Protein 1
Amino acid sequence: MLHSHHFFLPLFSGLATAANLYASHYSGTINYLTLTKSSDTAYSLTQTSSTRSGNQLPSWLTYDGEGKALYVSDEVFVGSGTLTSFSIGANGALTQSGKVTTPAGGVANCLYAGANGKGFIANAHYQTSALSTFKLPLNGGQPIQNIKYTMAGRGANPSRQDAPHPHHAFVDPTGGYLLVPDLGADIIRIYSIDKTSGQLTECPNAKLPPGTGPRHGAFWAPPSAAKSSRVRRGNAAAAEGTILFIANELSNTVSGWSVAYPSGGCITLALKQTLTPYSGNSSAPMGTKVGEIKVKDNFLYSSNRNDKKFDPNDSITQYSISSTGSISWVDLTSSYGTYPRTFDINKAGDLVAIGDQTTANVAIVRRVPATGKLTGQVANLRIGAAGTPENEDGVSAVVWAE
Ligand SMILES: *[C@@H]1O[C@H](CO)[C@@H](O)[C@H](O)[C@H]1NC(C)=O
Ligand SMILES: *[C@@H]1O[C@H](CO)[C@@H](O)[C@H](O)[C@H]1NC(C)=O
């Protein structure tokens, strides 16, 4: 006997394909979205489910596809915050699997160390000038480390640089080092990682010109090194030629840093290049705040919040990366909303999800993998209540669930 679902399912999936995403909203929700493609020109983006984040101001999502887990930072401004973890079930269903109390002001987290690079989690706390680390799974216990930063006085941008403000935490391509751009102190903080204990040891920091305000970072490795480091993960020799790209929120630039792996247990950074997000290296309009930065193959992208270049919408910049890691400006395209705080490129490299914070929408934009070009919006969905400019409301993070 012919079972109807065996017969019809392949036919149906030949016509329509689906991809999924998670988007967090500062009101305290994690939203599971489904993008359905019924033809090359017909896409629809819908909200499949919504789950409470288990904390007050969910600001950041780390998605672990292999481990079927999601980790959610809490930006709550006063008191303490709650880092939550979720396990992912059928149809993207989220079940809270752990939580810990952290310092307030959590704006980013990343997995690091352990056998597979997922044994521990590091958290940047903007508001409280701190970096906290925990062993996974989260079991309600105390941090392994809670590193507090101080500054002698205000920085060159006194209102924004009143104190150290770590804004991101991420590991280098070898998994041996953790980096933390500090927007308040104009420092890229560098730690070496003990892969067994998760303990971080401070390395000499990289100092930036006063008023730069580094926010987020992303690594690029030359194609040959990227290939061999997958085979020989952890081998510093495989990381030669690596470039660190940083989005500078206060100077509204992106910078490339050459990364060296000398013997002695610490990496060093040398400033290689700085560009604005605009054609001819022209300055950002008043009020712009460069936000997120991502690398895909030999292309770099920054999101440029509140530049209103596609008025009322903001913009995304595409840069190309040469074989030696130098960047050139290529194109400026719409963010299809305002305050693009977050964006994520899918693995195939043919779609980009942009999370516009204030308009509280997720825009799906087509990308041409060979040229890196963003060629227009294919779908767009409002998630929860719209925000107000400069407030911590609206959409905070979006990630492809793949
Ligand atoms: C581009 O402009 C930035 C900001 O003014 C400046 O720091 C940088 O040196 C300029 N880059 C080039 C290549 O002119
Ligand atoms: C801004 O983005 C919205 C959402 O996609 C779109 O409907 C609108 O046409 C865009 N406006 C401009 C001027 O690009």
Protein 2
Amino acid sequence: MVLLWLLFAVSKVSCKFEFTNIKCTSLDEKFAGVEYCYLKSVNRSYKYLSLKVNLFKTPITKIKINAALYKRFNGYRPFMYNITVDFLKNPSSNAAMNYLFGFFRNFSNINHTCPYDHDIIVDKLDINAANLQVTKVLPVPEGDYLVETHWIAYDIDRAIVKVYCSVS
Ligand SMILES: *[C@@H]1O[C@H](CO)[C@@H](O)[C@H](O)[C@H]1NC(C)=O
Ligand SMILES: *[C@@H]1O[C@H](CO)[C@@H](O)[C@H](O)[C@H]1NC(C)=O
Ligand SMILES: *[C@@H]1O[C@H](CO)[C@@H](O)[C@H](O)[C@H]1NC(C)=O
Ligand SMILES: *[C@@H]1O[C@H](CO)[C@@H](O)[C@H](O)[C@H]1NC(C)=O
């Protein structure tokens, strides 16, 4: 408990979250297309991430998401988490995935269980909200990170979204 509290207290004063890059790649243009995917800096304190992925074969009734965390040491190395969840069945079943979705929940239309019959949008997920998640919800150690997610529909890898960020 003391250690947790310490971590919490330390991270509270020192944590600063930044997005550093984003890359969205469709592996199957007939299935999914990236309409946009970018970071935008409005000013020093307001930076956000937006993306829109068009789905061409809707409704989609089977989708899994694999998320792996990488941390930069000497190049990006797998770090702690590599999880796959069956999104339409039970998206909240995995604590780590739940934490990851905590970043997007308020800014996207991906949080539901019905078959997907619409495009996927993340709208203006900003660093302040992300900062809240890495400082208040669960402290994350300092470093440069890459969150790589694979969107797997009907057991085929359809798209990759890579979000690079740093916590300092
Ligand atoms: C940054 O931009 C946001 C949105 O336009 C605005 O609300 C905020 O006041 C700006 N902050 C600074 C420091 O200019
Ligand atoms: C994560 O696990 C999957 C399935 O076991 C594997 O294919 C993939 O290479 C792993 N990714 C990383 C970054 O270790
Ligand atoms: C959607 O988000 C809310 C919290 O904002 C959560 O209670 C609910 O379980 C989520 N639903 C799914 C399907 O993940
Ligand atoms: C999402 O919204 C809820 C309720 O408005 C808020 O308590 C929570 O801190 C928000 N989370 C993020 C990551 O913005």
